[in-house]
Amino acid sequence: MEHLLPLWYGFLAGITVLIGAWVMYKARERMSPQRMGVLQAVAGGVLAYLALETGHAAAEHVEKLARPDTLLDFLVSSLVTTVAFIATFILLAKAERMGHKAGLSPSLASALIVALALGIHNVGEGFAIAASLLAGAVASAVLFTVGFAVHNATEGFAIVGPLLGDRNAKPSLAYITGLSLLAGLPVIPGAAIYYTGLGNELFISTLNTIANASIVYALLHVNLGALSRLGGLTSYKFWTSLVAGVALAFSTESIVLFAVA
Description:
Layout: H1 5-14, H2 17-28, H3 33-63, H4 71-101, H5 106-134, H6 138-160, H7 173-184, H8 187-195, H9 201-230, H10 236-260
Helix pairs in contact: 1-5, 1-6, 1-8, 2-6, 2-7, 3-4, 3-6, 3-9, 3-10, 4-5, 4-9, 5-6, 5-7, 5-8, 5-9, 6-7, 6-10
């Protein structure tokens, strides 16, 4: 039973993506284009914060190797993460083109990309929970789980964000639920991988690099949609809503920061 503990914690941390997605999905049905634009910009702000977070996490491992005694490791890590970064953009662009040819709308494709990006990102959350359990810090693992659960609810906003500006996209609640599970439940394999000792720093850094590129790709879609509804780059509403999204993501992430402290 003890070996299942990290899996249960991972499940509780990741399942809350559903809450944010369901709330945004229901709100979408009765909103004006302007309000949808505001919510899109908020979702774009959440993604912008996650892009900063994953980018920092990816760079941290590489930067600490920038010393003469670890020069080879630095070069290898730099090469691996750079290739992963470029390859992710190329593969996402190719996948989106294929989706368009197959009849998948741009907004549905963007929502899928957001869910995939968040799923990759959330593998790392499983690592943090498992690391605490392996160190015997059960209280910290519980706080991590609670913090990630609260924070991950905001990620549900980001998943539905691309769909807010597309009245023609009529995803079912089952589709939204599937995307939410794709985004949230990878916390579970993340916890399992780390708990069994299979993870290492380069692996985690590469995952964060892939997540970062995916999130940047998705947030461009979301924010371009918001800009078109709120009046472009000179719109005060856009920038205020974007910052509100960043603040929302940071405030929920702060629970995790206090847990670490």
